[in-house]
From TrEMBL:
The keyword Cell membrane applies. The gene is nuoH. PROSITE patterns: COMPLEX1_ND1_2 (PS00668). The keyword Metal-binding does not apply. The lineage of its organism: Bacteria, Pseudomonadati, Planctomycetota, Planctomycetia, Pirellulales. InterPro entries: NADH_UbQ_OxRdtase_su1/FPO (IPR001694), NADH_UbQ_OxRdtase_su1_CS (IPR018086). It comes from Lacipirellula parvula. This is NADH-quinone oxidoreductase subunit H. GO terms for biological process: aerobic respiration.
Length: 394
């Protein structure tokens, strides 16, 4: 065995171990995130939630997994079987591939065993571009799944979902350009390290508007409430996955939750300093087990973002589809463009970066005032009930 290991590069072993750990942990975490969301929703709606399988329902994910595995596989008549079976895998794999450039802890720190690495692909200096490129391919899983099902509801649901995903790709990418310009890099780990100087170096303080746009667009990309318009019982039944069941449906579901985890990691790393926290997790921290504390800090931030996303789901009502598209094209895209121009202006004239904070808040306030004025004008010119009755009568 030792003779065989001599011919295998340590770098390859480390990479394979890291991939296995990331995939295994992600799938295990997703199953218990589903349980956490069901518990949270039950708490917010004043009911018990899942409590039958094991003490406090902790074995419910195992029961759900067994149900998916044992459920009957159904393929609709007339469906394109190749694309019908491939679509869920495309959606799940594209999201999982994005994790390859996301740092899960401190990278390049001394004291960590050689077989432990917190980044699958450490030398990709265009990590942000890679993530946006690979996650944008997930729309093929949606459109192919809807078309291959040979169902009108599925086809209409896939068209609606693909329009939503493509529309929110633009503000999602433009919101990050401000940070890329400030950091002069597209490497995610380098952007993280630039925020480890102090608490006030976190990009959230100088880019609050970009953080809001990124988080909102990422929710829409993941089809999370209040943007889950790809399915609707009254109009589209289950949307693009109406005809999917058992493990094929589970793959779509896993892809959605993997997207939520990816979004939470990126939000924590790009805007909230990643593993950095004053006094306990800094680049100078050299006490025993410091790297474990840094991982704990990062996972705590990620957990808070995930819980916030779950709370939003059970708090904010759904948008109408026209409101969803208006939000992207009339609000988020102009705001992200204005934010990027503001960053370019500050850098060009060498102004202090803290000017970006009032500029971001000012842009947000102006956008809110314009939206209120437009809504008031629309209401003022809306015909009254008597005028509508007269129009219908004549």
């Amino acid at each position: 065995m030792d003779a065989i290991l001599e011919y295998i590069p340590k770098e390859l072993i480390t990479t394979l171990v890291t991939i296995a750990v990331v995939v295994g942990v992600t799938l295990g975490v997703i199953s218990y995130l589903i349980l956490l969301e069901r518990k949270l929703s039950a708490w917010m709606q004043d009911r018990r939630g899942p409590n039958r399988v094991g003490p406090m329902g902790i074995f419910q994910p195992l029961a759900d997994g067994a149900k998916f595995l044992l459920k009957e596989e159904v393929t609709p008549a007339g469906a394109d079987k190749v694309l019908f079976y491939a679509a869920p895998g495309i959606g799940f794999m594209t999201t999982m591939l994005a994790f390859s450039v996301v740092p899960f802890g401190p990278v390049g720190v001394e004291g960590i065993p050689w077989f432990v690495r917190f980044l699958i692909a450490p030398d990709v200096n265009i990590g942000i571009v890679f993530i946006f490129a690979i996650t944008s391919l997930s729309v093929y899983g949606v459109i192919l799944g809807g078309w291959a099902s040979n169902n009108k509801y599925s086809a209409l649901g896939s068209l609606r979902a693909s329009a939503q995903v493509i529309s929110y790709e633009i503000p999602l990418g433009m919101s990050i350009l401000g940070i890329a310009l400030l950091g002069s890099t597209l490497d995610i780990n380098t952007l993280l390290m630039q925020q480890t100087g102090s608490f006030w170096d976190w990009y959230f303080w100088t880019q609050p508007l970009a953080c809001l746009i990124f988080f909102t667009s990422a929710l829409a990309e993941a089809n999370r409430l209040p943007f889950d318009l790809s399915e609707c019982e009254q109009e589209l039944v289950g949307g693009f996955h109406t005809e999917y069941s058992s493990m094929k449906f589970a793959l779509f579901f896993l892809g959605e939750y993997a997207h939520v985890i990816l979004t939470s990691f990126l939000t924590s790393i790009l805007f909230f300093g990643g593993w950095h926290f004053p006094w306990i997790a800094t680049p100078e921290s050299a006490y025993t087990g410091a790297w474990v504390v840094k991982i704990g800090v990062l996972l705590f931030k990620v957990g808070m973002v995930i819980v916030f996303i779950m709370l939003l789901r059970w708090t904010i009502p759904r948008f109408r589809f026209d409101q969803l598209m208006n939000l992207s094209w009339k609000a988020l895209i102009p705001l992200s463009l204005a934010n990027m121009v503001a960053v370019m202006t500050v850098l060009q004239f060498g102004w202090d970066r803290w000017w970006l904070t009032p500029i971001s808040l000012g842009l947000f306030a102006v956008a809110g005032l314009i939206s209120v004025a437009m809504k008031r004008a629309e209401i003022r010119h809306r015909p009254s009930a008597a005028e509508l009755a007269h129009q219908f009568a004549t």
